[in-house]
Specification:
With 110 residues, the chain is mostly helical. The chain is built from four helices and three strands, in the order βααββαα. A three-stranded antiparallel sheet has the order 1-3-2.
Length: 110
């Protein structure tokens, strides 16, 4: 990393080295985990974004450190996504509710 800044994209070899696994494992995980969709250039070389690298590291943690099966990790990630989506929805609804309460209060003034 030059000047302490992170790269925008990483090759499959760089990511594999980061997690201590073979590139073929990452290609396999792409088939098993739909959130892993690296962009490919005209030569078919994969480029992983920072977000994807982070997801790969988390998947690696679930499979290798937590010793989950692929099915178990997929279910866990789906559950986490549902929880995150519900939290976002609650946050949005709370914002709308506060707006409507302010609007009602403003209309009651007149």
């Amino acid at each position: 990393m030059e000047n302490g800044s992170e790269k925008l994209y990483y090759t499959i070899g760089e990511v594999a080295e980061m997690i201590g696994e073979a590139p073929s494992l990452l290609r396999y995980w792409e088939k098993e985990f739909p959130q892993l969709k690296p962009t490919k250039n005209s030569k078919g070389i994969r480029k992983y974004s920072r977000k994807e690298v982070s997801e790969i590291k988390f998947i690696h943690h679930l499979l290798k450190d937590k010793r989950m099966t692929i099915d178990g990790a997929q279910k866990y990630l789906q559950d986490q996504k549902r929880i995150h989506n519900k939290s976002e929805m609650i946050e949005k609804l709370t914002t709308i509710k506060l707006f409507l309460q302010k609007l009602r209060n403003a209309l009651n003034v007149y």
